[in-house]
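In the previous lecture we treated proteins in isolation. Real proteins rarely work alone, and many bind small molecules. This record shows how such a complex is specified: first the sequence, then the SMILES for molybdenum atom.
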Amino acid sequence: MTRENAPTEGRRSRSWRPRIPTLPEDPPPGPFRPEFWRSPIRGPWLTSVLGLILLVGVPIVAITGLLSYAAYNPWLPLNDLTPGKGLLGFYLFDWPTNPPWLYRLTQGTHVVLGLTLFPVLLAKLWSVIPKLFAWPPVRSAAQALERASLLLLVGGAVFEFVTGILNIQLFYVFPFSFYPAHLYGAWIFLGALAVHVALKMPRVVSTLRTRGLRDLRTNLADTRPEPPDTSGLVSPAPAPPTISRRGLLAFAGGGALTVFALSVGQSIDGWLRRTALLAPHGRVYGTGPNDFQVNKTAASVGIVTAQTGDAWRLEVMGPHPVRLSRADLLAMPLYTYALPIACVEGWSTQREWTGVRLADLARMAGAAPGDTQVVVRSLQRGGVFSRVTLSARQVADPRSLLALRVGGADLSLDHGYPARIIVPNAPGVHNTKWVRMLEFGPVTA
Ligand SMILES: Nc1nc2c(c(=O)[nH]1)N[C@H]1C(S)=C(S)[C@@H](COP(=O)(O)O)O[C@H]1N2
Ligand SMILES: [Mo]
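The predicted 3D structure, ligand included, written as tokens:
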């Protein structure tokens, strides 16, 4: 029985069709009308210049960010926080221990440059905002695809910058784990960016060819709108200018420089550190040689002196397990190296660490450095900081220490007393504090 001759529906018209609401031809009032956007400086030139600045900076932020992902050695057991990464882990490699300052440089660059570019990103978004309200919202399949890719581009960019900034401010308001979200968000953003650059580059080139850089010399009085075009950026009803294009660029650049000046100090030792007013870790955390940043204090993770006092023993597991007191460790050959601690959140500082070589501890437990990796366990229970796997290369490096002292003084409780890991060129998060156990074992990957 068909729908038409069903008894109860017999009288309904045969031409019945679902009513698809159609959008009016004319845009609704407000931001959907091109005349709503009146800034006379919007246009392909301004957008191209801002886009080119980002095109230089964003790849540096992306590459240093992806390097940071590799620096965690997520191919080792316990280290991988993104087990679902699949092909996105394709570039992983055994992170080197040389040069020892490399991660300090790449991660400082990632964070400080990312912060610095944020005002430029905001200016770029401002310059294209009329496009967000294009009417009709969908004109053709091709245009729908382009708009969808812009959603991923703008959404991805905002997501990466905002999660990054919240994370370095230790402000974990988002309801997901930062580390996988920031990685997957990066790949989405980079994919959309590649499409965007390919689509827009011809226009950027032709705009700069015809218009050149003369707007960098044009003052407010001589500022004119760009000729009407099909970009959707030039206002059809421009208001008189209140700022020149170079004024807008100077404003965004000034914002970027301010952010840079107030955060770069966190990655530099010496008096410049005090200029890092935007850094969340720019405070005082100890006395004497222990006066440097602490991410998590002992109190904040429930470490009490009863665990770290004379009863503390280091369990060294391997073919011949040993238990060592702090006095036993201090009686072993001690080595001192100046090595940075470089937090994934951007701050870093170089210190003189004194302690026992991981390689010596491996040998003591009957394992051969070179063919041995180690699982480090902390007194701290639970969470990503409580354990980490260090690679065979990291164990074998003579500068990799179980540190007992810093700058000649005993480690403070907040810096990991009785003993902490220091590995050259490792991300700070792998320099486990309050070490309880070292499990030397064969190479697994
Ligand atoms: N057990 C434990 N170890 C840890 C941490 C922690 O929270 N718990 N923080 C790590 C991080 S993220 C960094 S950057 C360094 C910070 O070292 P600091 O507190 O001595 O400056 O320690 C690492 N080791
Ligand atoms: Mo860190």
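Summary for your notes: The first strand starts at residue 314 and ends at 317. Residues 293-296, 301, 341, 343, 378, 380, 385, 415-416, 428-429, 431-434 surround MTE (ligand 1) (CB under 6 Å).
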